[in-house]
């Protein structure tokens, strides 16, 4: 699609985003340390369930690599954050654009919810639809986080693929706890709080002005706040 719409120049720009890795140590710490802390370790501590703490750590690197290449990040992100996000942000703005992308991202996983147990999916219409709607709410929140990371790192596909892999594989750090209802509730609460902080801190812009300034140098500088967030 990129080739059909933007031609060779668009393909070249997309490929350069694959290898945009010089984005600062903070973003690697967020991906490899912050996300597992937020999605697994903090919920476990809040729930008082620390018996399985880091039980999956020895196999985590293997799990992470497998998830990166086979579990969605490497194959999905060129479409979601590579192709769709820049266009949706341009047309709808960063917040509405990322929310719409989050809904589409959630519906993309619809066939998986016919597998009993997938992300809490039960049997029958109610069991499937309830789990699916909950998942779409989560992907909508995550889409805002992804948009912020993408914008803040100059559209780095490499970073958002690492982020996607970290989210998908973090549960393997404590597999006995990851699939419990308590963990899901705690994780959603933490995710929504984190997303709300990003929205408030960036005034709903999700660092989009910074992204434009870095990718379109001819544009005037954005407000000082966006240089920091």
From TrEMBL:
Pfam families: Rce1-like. GO terms for molecular function: endopeptidase activity. It comes from the Bacteria. Residues 61-169 form the CAAX prenyl protease 2/Lysostaphin resistance protein A-like domain. GO terms for biological process: CAAX-box protein maturation. Keywords: Membrane, Transmembrane, Transmembrane helix. The keyword Cell inner membrane does not apply. The chain crosses the membrane at residues 25-46, 58-76, 97-118, 124-149, 156-178, 184-202. InterPro entries: MmRce1-like, Rce1/LyrA-like_dom. This is CAAX prenyl protease 2/Lysostaphin resistance protein A-like domain-containing protein. The lineage of its organism: Bacteria, Bacillati, Chloroflexota, Ktedonobacteria, Ktedonobacterales.
